[in-house]
Design goal:
Helix content is about 80%, strand content about 0%. By secondary structure, it is mainly alpha-helical.
Length: about 400
Amino acid sequence: MEVRFGLKENWQQFSLLVLVNAFVGGMVGLERSILPQLAAQEFHIASHSAIFSFIVVFGIVKALTNYFAGHFANTLGRRRLLIYGWLFAIPIPFLLMWAPTWNWIVAANVLLGINQGLAWSSTVTMKIDLVGDKQRGLAMGINEFAGYLSVGLVALLTAWIANTYGIRPYPFYIGIVFVFLGLLISWIWVKDTRSFVQKAAQESSLPLLKNPFWDTSLLHRNLGAISQAGLVNNLNDGMIWGLFPLLLATKGFDLGQIGMITAIYPLVWGLAQLGTGRLSDFICQKDLLFIGMLLQAFAILGLIWAQTFAAFAILSFVIGVGTAVVYPTFLASIAENTHPADRAASLGTFRLWRDLGYAFGAILTGVLADYFELEVSVIVIGLLTLGSAGVIKWRMMC
């Protein structure tokens, strides 16, 4: 079969991967609004560090799985890794529904990290394989749109179900449907993209990286700058995931209002990426990353002074816009700066550092919140995000 790159030329496979990634995102959305409240209400956990343990575990496991998914993508094949990701997801909704102790919730997040690392990484890499050089930003925008729109919608839905019918078990029934459909589509209809990689490698003029791990992590000016920004981006996302619902609860908002405010951020993040991903095909990626990190930093620092529902909703919206600007641009920039033979390994390394940000963010904000106040955590994360924007401005080149 002749290999032809492009979104239009491969729309059927691309559409299937978009749908699969929506189910992958939905698995995270199951927890997004309600797990901190579940820890406090059903397991009576008061320590912020203990509550955030599920984010720490999720971030570390997903980060490591991302790396190994990138490392083995060329040998095992993308499709096989995608199917493995869904097999690991099968127990997750049942663990969340029936957990008698908090350790079961942590175990569910180990499996969730593996699921996200294998399944999301595979769909990202396969879409880049299919579209070729000219539409990477658009492809990543559509991919992240599907995933994070699903995170936001499911977070909103589970918060409403929890507020109406109770935190368990009803919100987690949706996860059973996601796992079944995701595994079915991946197993029967998704095809591997190895032939696309082979053709792209023959046509590429980019040099191979000397060491994909170290070059992506630090040594390459553009790749290193992107990796640190990815880590800080997810560091502040880990803070928002774990701390934001608790901060809102201290302001007197009920579970339904908390669900609405926390859902705005991933919903805007998801929707806006349809436009921001396309922008990275035309506008200097350095400028987009700098602006996106700057928007996040100012909005996070603004949380300190917010008091009303409208103020928090607006700040959540701005954080979503800032994240939407950087997220597809990260992936498109990694692809643009790497040879096709290195691309999966480089993407895996970037996603290793990016998702370690979840763990660092949860640990840092949990410790600061326990020893000082919730607001201190917010200030520190905001300043780190501002510093990351500075690194992009100083180190990266268009």
